[in-house]
Amino acid sequence: MRQLVFSIFLFISVVDCIAQNNNALSKKAESLYNEAKTNAQAGDKVKAIALLNQVLKTDPQYYMAYFGLADIYHETKEHQLEKDALVNGLHISSDRFPLGYKFLAELLYADASYAEALENIEHYNRLKKPLTTEENRLLESCRFAVKALGSPVAFHPENAGAAINTTEDEYWPSLNGEANALVFTRLITKDMEGRKISYPQEDFYISRKDSVGWQKALSLGPPVNTGENEGAQCISADGRLLFFTGCGRPDGLGSCDIYMSVRQKNKWSEPVDLGNPVNTNAWESQPSVSADGRLLYFTSNRKGGKGKMDIWRAEEIGVSPEGFPVYGKVINMESVNTQGNELSPFIHADGKTLYFSSDFWPGMGDKDLFFISIDSTQTTIPQNLGYPVNTSGNEEGLVVEVSGDRAWYTANNTGFGGRDIFTFQLPEALKPRPVSWVKGKIVNRKTGQLIFSDIVLNDLVTNRLAQHLYPFENEGEFLFCLPSGHNYGLNISKEGYLFHSENFNLLEANNRHQPLNLTIALDPIETGKTTILKNIFFETDSFSLKSESRGQLKDIVDFMKANPGLVIEIGGHTDNQGSDTHNLVLSGKRADAVVKSLIGMGVPPARLKSKGYGFSIPVADNSTEEGRALNRRTEFKVIEDRLAK
Length: 645
Description:
Strands 6, 7, 8, 9 and 10 form a 5-stranded antiparallel β-sheet that branches. A 4-stranded antiparallel β-sheet has the order 1-21-20-19, with no helix packed on it. The protein folds into 4 domains: 5-150, Serine Threonine Protein Phosphatase 5, Tetratricopeptide repeat; 168-430, 6 Propeller (Neuraminidase), CATH 2.120.10; 434-523, Immunoglobulin-like; 525-645, CATH 3.30.1330.60. Helix 1 (5-20) packs antiparallel against helix 4 (63-75). A hairpin with a 4-residue loop joins strand 23 and strand 24 (464-469). The protein contains 12 helices and 32 strands. With 645 residues, the protein is of the alpha+beta class.
């Protein structure tokens, strides 16, 4: 809010003003002005306005009367009258009241008259230096807005349609990783017969997308929806976790807390308060969970922040026996937050691009949408999404699909009534890193039944864990998002079964696999059963193991420790490029290299065999590069179980 001239210090300084212009002012004008002051301070704005107009009739050059009028009109929110008064006062004052230019710039900026606002705030800057933080922010915002208007971004919003939007307010969209389930908040103001209800009700609804399109949204129902209001939610990429905001609840720690529900056997669990340190006695809301579930971003006005509302981040520190992630290690996102308000965080599936809303970073007015890279190796400045995505109005609550191509948000544009959910193609410059996903279900090859297994996704280059789902977390199904720039190894294991591995190489910066749907069949451990070691890698035409093979080698070691009676064969296979002899020798040396590494990691030599097969047992067509790549493989085969009865 601007500092009020008339009410706070205008009459303190007016004596000096009158003294400087004593020859031009009549005693009558001065008397009327002082009387206006008395009435304004007593709260009689109507009388004060009338007296100030009399001042101007008596002496049209008494410019402080115009600024007094502007001050009263500012308080009564009559902005056009305020602007007219400022313009008239500045026309007469000849730069003797610099604040008038600042106040006029604020009005013009709020009215989206950015070029005129910039002209006035720059003139004010020439008269007054240095600027305060708030004044400099206005200057930078005006400069940005003028530039943004001159170079608009591509923006063609589309209403999400009648399956999602109604005559009620729909807002706060959230999507799963496949972008085929949309959870949003709807404000219910009418009963089933169309009659207004006494207390509007916020509930969650879900719409699912099939080959035809988005289906009619249905209430998420109990136990998530209750007689209380639920809002500001997000859903995890795999659709298993739902985080949302609940206010004024008996189990809450503050005015609003963040709650979580877990989907188990296609039913949502009873929501639980996340507790300390995520929730405090302050206001916590607007959660956004990373694609791997390990980081939770949210908004809070708790103590220790940089501004009014700040964005914070919590880290998963464990998993409860019921399969609920436990969050702690809360930090302030200092590179994002300011003295103002930062709200509605959304962390994209790339794990590095954070979209948020702010009323402080340079923008078009009120709250604008921004994004920032939070890569630990670099620091960037938040980037405004530009015009016309941002306007002089209030923009917040944007989410971006895993693909990075399309964004969803809420607007009051022409639609079905009130606020509707819209979607638009995200301009190239505003997109996050390419991300794909892999979805799978794990079954028993013999019975077809789902298997609850350990599912581990590793970054093979750094040898770091990317994601781990325990059996009680996945119910035999999983979905992992795969940001580009990594070589991923997937390993699935279950006691009594051969493990299974997959590889997803996205090392190229712009490499994006097409989304994959896999059905992975595990074989019970039996003599003669094999599994392909898809994360064993060799240098080209060499038997030298690459460092990326470390994770797969450890998988084999762990399997052998868990099954001490097994004897296995490591088999090497090649494509048909080159001579029979060369490929047979190469495949044998590669198998030997794996065995030697396993022995070095503690597996007894007596439990390991190696054999090279050359290209004698192809699994694909050697006439294509894709087929040859599949034929170049290392296999793991059970050849004996010494403990079998």
